[in-house]
Amino acid sequence: MAPLRTPFKPVILAVALAFSASVQAIPLTTTVTGGNILLSGANLSVSDSTTSSSFVNTSQSASPVISQFNSSYGVLTSVTATITPGSSSTYLRADGSTPTGGTATVSTIWHGIDGLNVSGALNTASKHNGPNDGTSSSWLSPSQTITNSTALNSWVGSGSLNTQVDTSLIANRSHGGLPGETLTASISSSNVNNDPSYLTDLTTSYSLVYNYLQHAQASFAADSVVTELNLNFGHLYAGDPVASLSFNLFNLLGERAGLDLDLISGAGHTSVLTTNLTQFFGLEAGDNNDFLAFIDTSNPGTFNATYHLSLSDANIGASASRYLFDNYLTLNLSGTVIEAASAAAVPEPDMLALVGIGLLGFLGIRRTERKDEEANVASFDNTSLTPFGETEFERSTYQIDRRETSIAQRSDWDAQ
User: Fold this and answer.
1) How far apart, in whole angstroms, are the C-alpha atoms of residue 62 and residue 370?
2) Residue 47, exposed/middle/buried by CB under 10 A (0-12, 13-18, 19+)?
3) How far is residue 355 CA from its own chain's centroid?
4) What is the pLDDT of residue 385?
5) What does DSSP say about strands 324-338 and 228-237: parallel, antiparallel, or unpaired?
6) Where would I find the beta strands (DSSP E) of 112-163?
7) Which residues pair with residue 250 across a beta bridge?
8) pLDDT category, 23, cuts 50, 70, 90?
């Protein structure tokens, strides 16, 4: 008997996501904060006694230690560094005699790591020719955002970074006054009194905001992490058209980096069980690519193949923070191709009908013959054939002989 055919039913694995389309991911943040003294002690006051284009300054350095970005969070896309000095009760003063004029300035530069260069004036106070000194508590907060991927690599790791903040207090007497008179720049807690007793440290807080996207998440399913998929083509006849099954690769929804398919490696019967998998780059979160798997039915046999897919985060941000997912997804394909049944081995329907009718007729004839035989035996047993004048013993013996002869004949007929 020819083997039964297993109907081929394509398995549709794609999930219709009409309610959720891919959207541009919004970076997440993690922040490192700290504080340092920018100016203190002898560096809280400086004086300029000349009206030339030159100025007088004093400088001090601080060394903030910064925790690096942990790549387990995701892919680092940018770093924003900000210095926030002073407070509303910290004043920059420009003091001098009544006719003396000029400016007091505090400036800084934060550096020490590739790409980091937060610099600029933190505050400026001006004294004009009048009697009033100049004061200001309007402190500026210079900031910088680093996006260069090469520079960002320096910020990725599990340790700490040593940075440096150089701050200068500058006095610049620009006009007025008698020779030898001075313009003094100072940091004070008073906006009305230039007494040295009011000198106060200039402190700052700093912040580093790491902007990142979560790592890409590859899956064979739309709403959960499925890293292994089995596709079985069932049983097919040799010579059937090439069959196919569909499947999808997803980058799960979230504030994620794009997904790259970098490498496809196969093992087993990869010449029979094939796919149309190709490399792709930057598959956005919430999106998917659809593919097909095929089985070649040219030759009978049982076939198995395994495909391993290596993926990675898209090429954005700091390469040092991107993840590589080697052999992360596994696609298992299987199927059986059966030798096609020979036409000569299967009886034609009309021939089967004729054979059936012949068998039924033969059985009917045999049943009729058997009934006739049984009737003849019964009739013979009941007929008196004893000659006139024979004894009762002779009559009984004669009947027994005739019955045995009849039974023997019936056995011969049955054997036929």
Assistant:
1) 124
2) middle
3) 66
4) 44
5) parallel
6) 118-127, 134-136, 143-146, 160-162
7) 219, 288
8) low
Q: Which of 66-84 are b and which e, b meaning 16 or more Cβ less than 10 Å from the residue's Cβ?
A: bbbbebebbbbbbbbbbbb
Q: What is the dihedral of CA 30, 31, 32, 35, to 10 degrees?
A: -170
CA gap 251, 272 in Å, rounded: 29
**How is the chain split into domains, by residue range?**
40-213, 218-338, 349-415
Contact 127, 47 (CB under 8 A): no
User: What does DSSP say about strands 45-48 and 259-268: parallel, antiparallel, or unpaired?
Assistant: unpaired
Distance CA 186, CA 394 (A): 164
What would the pLDDT profile of 403-416 be if each residue is shown by its tens digit?
A: 555 545 555 545 54
Within 10 Å of residue 186's Cβ, how many Cβ atoms?
A: 25
The CATH class, in words, for 218-338 is mainly beta
| Topology of the domain covering 40-213 | Jelly Rolls (2.60.120)
Compute the average pLDDT of residues 36-47: 97
- Rounded Cα gap, residues 393 and 395, in angstroms: 5
**How far apart (Å, rounded) are the C-alpha atoms in residues 308 and 294?**
16
Helices (H) and strands (E) in the chain, counts: 3, 23
- Residue 320 DSSP symbol: G
